Each structure stands twice: as C-alpha cells, then as structure tokens.
TrEMBL record:
PROSITE patterns: FE_B12_PBP
InterPro entries the record matches: ABC_Transporter_SBP, ABC_transptr_periplasmic_BD
Native source species: Thermasporomyces composti
Keyword Repeat found: no
Signal peptide extent: 1-35
TM ranges: none
Keyword Signal in record: yes
Domain Fe/B12 periplasmic-binding, first and last residues per copy: 79-352
Protein name: Iron complex transport system substrate-binding protein
Top-level taxon of origin: Bacteria
Length: 352
C-alpha cells in the first residue's frame, strides 16, 4: 500500500520540467510582480527576490537530521544510488544528477524533460522489480556490494543501521519517516531542497530552484482566485480489486488541492493516507477525483473506480471530472508536486 512507498548533468534551469508557458502567461507575470514585494513565513527569500546572493558554501563535515537520525557527510556525495524516483528533480535542479552511479526501480519518462530522461537512461539499473503496491523489490546486499556513499530511499528489507555499519549514508523522504507527524506543505519541498543543497554544497542552486518553484505555485494560486471552490478527493485505487486509499491533511495532496482552488473532502482526516470505502466516498461526494498510480495503464486505474458497483452515484464519475496522474506528481513533496499542481489546475480548468 502507498503508506510505505519508497518511490514509487549539465545545469540548465533551476527546474527540470517542461515549462507551462503556454498556459496563463499573464497570470504568471502578475504573480511575479506581486511576489516581489514580500517574503514568506519561513524567512526565506520570496519568489521575486534573488536569494542566491545570501547562499553560502557548505563547511564539511556537515550533519543533517533525517527521520530523527543524524547523518554526517565529510564531503559532497560522489557515489549515489537512487532507490526511488522522487529525488531526481532536486538532484537535476542542483546540477548533481551526475553523482548518481546506479538506480533501481521505476523512473517513468512522463516525470522528466528530455535532458533528464537522457541522463537517467545513461545510469545503469540494478533492477526494476516493483510489486503491485509500488514497492521496490531488491536486496540490501546487492546495493551494499556497489559501495555507494549515499543511498536515496530505503525499500522493504533495508535498514539505515545496516548501511551505516559499512559506511553508507541513507536518506528518505521525510514524509515516509515512521513517526512523521508534521504538517505537509510546499515549504516541505523547499526545506528538502535546502537540505540537499547543503549536502551537495550547492546552496545557490538550491535557492534558485526554490525561488522558481515559489513563482510557479504563486501563478497557479493567482489563476484560481475568484473561481468557485469545488470539492475534490485524491485516491490511490487498487487495480484488479482490493483496498483503496484516500489522502488526508498530512499528505502533499492536501496543500496541492488547496493551491489549485479545491477543498479536500478528507481534509478533516489527520492522516497522510488511509483505507477508504466506496460508501465513504459517496457520502462525501467530491466534485472531482485525482487518481494516483505508480505504473501501468492509467485507463485501468480509472476503471478501478468508475466500474465499482454504485460508483455512478459519485458526481465526479457522472461528470467524468477525473484526472489520473503518476504518484510522484503528488507525493512525496518534491518539485514534481508543483508539476502535479499545474496539471490539476490545467486539467480541471477546462471542466469548470
């Protein structure tokens, strides 16, 4: 199930996505002008300011905290193994994707631009065995044998302690920490970028990437101002039958929906992800549905919901107001979540 999913270079611009410049260009310009007048609550530079001037180089050794563990780096990592796809856009945005020497798992091409896909294709793969719940199937021993200095992602069967015992650092997305209880927001993305910028000694690149993402989020928020607020739910269906999942206010789905101008019908649930029944979904009756999946046929993902007996009682099904998108476009919080935000806003703007 998606609760424990560990998903599933030359520098160009601070982001790696294909730009959305053909949609609402005047809104983006307005957002940039407005954003230049202030700073956010985190104390970081606002989207219209140049925060790169304040960035300072990393003094090694540097220690960061990850899931309550102290992780120390004596120098920027040089042999990184990717065991999840989520960090790719941060690494590419910082200009350090070339530090990745091996990868394992699924890296859908829909996530990335041509340059990033070419870089990923050039990285040798240790395997792409993903189970039905999106979990990578790989042995810890096969990764240790490659002698990385950093592993990104901890699939089932891996432990931070076992890797540390042989001198390998490990980092996972904070939202996947076993005891994670914090609030998830776009600031979570910015904090993660700052952490990676510190680890890899790329503070200026981190600041530029954060500023770019803030501009894009502000543009979407500006575009939906004054529009009727509709209800929505984000679901992770199980293709072929079985348990379905919905996303509450601890997930990245929640701030994503809010920024796109929707109200999360499960916004009162203080969990990241939880089992949901069709009856519960019908009771809350969201106007639109966002369906997440790891890989496979998106039509089969949609069918897993619309073909359920009684699903035709849902307003979203009746109006076909449904978006099926890959998992990392929502979770965990990374620059891909901003891509996903734009996809949600763009898709449902044509059906409002």
């Amino acid at each position: 199930m998606p609760t424990t999913r560990r998903t599933p270079t030359t520098r160009k611009t601070p982001t790696t996505r294909k730009t959305w410049s053909t949609w609402l260009p005047l809104v983006l310009a307005a957002a940039l002008l407005g954003a230049a007048c202030g700073t956010d609550e985190r104390g970081a530079s606002g989207p219209g300011t140049d925060s790169t001037t304040a960035a300072t180089s990393t003094a090694y050794p540097v220690t960061v905290e990850n899931c309550g563990a102290k992780v120390t780096f004596d120098e920027p990592p040089k042999r990184v193994i990717l065991l999840e796809s989520a960090p790719v856009t941060i690494l590419q945005g910082l200009g350090v994707l070339d530090s990745v020497v091996l990868r394992a798992g699924a890296f859908p091409k829909e996530y990335y631009d041509d340059e990033t896909n070419a870089a990923i294709d050039a990285i040798p793969s240790l395997g792409e065995d993903i189970d039905i719940n999106g979990h990578l199937q790989i042995s810890q021993e096969s990764v240790i044998a490659q002698q990385p200095d950093l592993v990104l992602g901890l699939p089932d069967g891996f432990t931070r302690e076992s890797l540390a015992a042989v001198g390998i650092n490990a980092l996972i997305q904070p939202i996947y920490c076993p005891n994670y209880s914090g609030t998830t927001s776009f600031d979570t993305i910015y904090d993660q970028i700052e952490t990676y910028g510190t680890i890899f000694d790329r503070p200026k690149e981190a600041a530029a990437l954060i500023d770019s993402l803030k501009q894009r989020v502000a543009a979407v928020e500006k575009s939906v101002e004054g529009t009727p607020k509709r209800t929505a739910a984000v679901l992770f269906p199980t293709v072929g039958g079985g348990t379905g999942y919905a996303y509450g206010n601890k997930s990245m789905a929640h701030p994503q929906l809010e920024a796109a101008g929707f109200t999360n019908v499960f916004g009162d649930v203080d969990e990241r992800v939880f089992e949901v029944t069709l009856e519960q979904l019908i009771d809350r009756d969201p106007a639109v549905l966002v369906l997440l999946y790891v890989d496979g046929d998106p039509e089969a993902v949609k069918d897993a919901i619309v073909n359920l007996p009684g699903a035709d009682a849902l307003t979203a099904v009746q109006n076909d107001d449904i978006l099926v998108q890959l998992f990392n476009f929502t979770e965990p919080p990374t620059p891909l979540s901003v891509d996903g935000l734009e996809r949600i806003a763009r898709h449902f703007s044509t059906t409002s």
